[in-house]
Amino acid sequence: MNNILNKNLDLKGKKVLLRVDLNVPMKNGSITETSRIEKIIPTINLLVEKQAKIIIMSHIGRPKGKVVEGMSLKPISEKLSFLLKKKVLFNKDIINENTLLEINKISNGSIIMLENIRFNEGEKTNDKDFSKKMSTLGDIYINDAFSCSHRSHASVEGITKYMPSYFGLQITEEINALKKLTSEIKKPVSLIIGGSKISTKIKIINNLIKKFNNIIIVGGMANTMLKHTGASVGKSICEYECASLIKEIIENSKKYNCDITLPKDVIVSKSLNGNGKEKNINEIDENDMILDIGSKTISSIETTINKSKTVLWNGPAGYFENPNFQNGTKKILELISQKTKNDKIFSVAGGGETVAAINKFNKFDSFTFVSTAGGAFLEYLEGKTLPGIKALN
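and the corresponding structure tokens:
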């Protein structure tokens, strides 16, 4: 990694295309969690100090190459401006022949943010012409979006073929921390994995089974596993087309001697806004929704954490946004936090929702390392070469 943004790089008057990940959680047009925005501030401040012209590129959501109302980066540009205490200009159009004219108007040390890069249809397909078109907007490119670097998209991978390209400060920190984790990993290793969809993480779980001693599955993913192993999950979030994938996970866990743990008991409600009731897995009614893990499951997770030397966590244990269903996520956080402080275990958390939970309960300093990346974080641990990293190496 020689091509890192550093203090010696002369960038005065240079147009710097800075790819970041500002895909932050929003509710009714308001940003509910700002970690991803805060993490890119050191890189921006360094570029301002160097008197570069900073052009920020990012995305939010999955607009599939079309302009979608409610997925504009405008509110995010305003929040960034507030956090930087510096004006951030906003370019409201998709990239066209006027974009360069707008960029050329800005002075040294100024910042302009382009509209959601995924509104452009060449972004997700990693279109060669779109990558070239983007490269004409600047003099150098900096990737500071580790959480997007597992995607072969134009603003992450394609653009690097057409201009001098560098790693930003945040991405460098993430890679160094994960390199340390993968090279010095101490066993037993336990992974706590949650979130709503198992299908998006199934291959990763299958590969991590070979490396880890324990995998604890919680959240919506656990519902799918429970359903396919014969339990009733009522009207809980669940994927029904995963039978063969789950069979494979169970077979592999036996083959590689990895212990897979599913919830023994859960907190159910008739609705997301309701109150919770604790039930054993065999007591779920057809109109129950599983929204958190129960006390027996928390005890079993505690036992596993206590015998681990390394703990990784990705994805909450339930619908923690409602205080009635936050106990599981909160308890996991407390257990890891305590163990990290007392026994000096190596603990890593990754993913947007996970970071939101950590912030909600003020536990940011309780982990050895916190990554805002979810998919990229897991794929890196899996040993995959990430396209965005490979392009810069």
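(Above: one complete record from the training split.) The mean pLDDT is 92.
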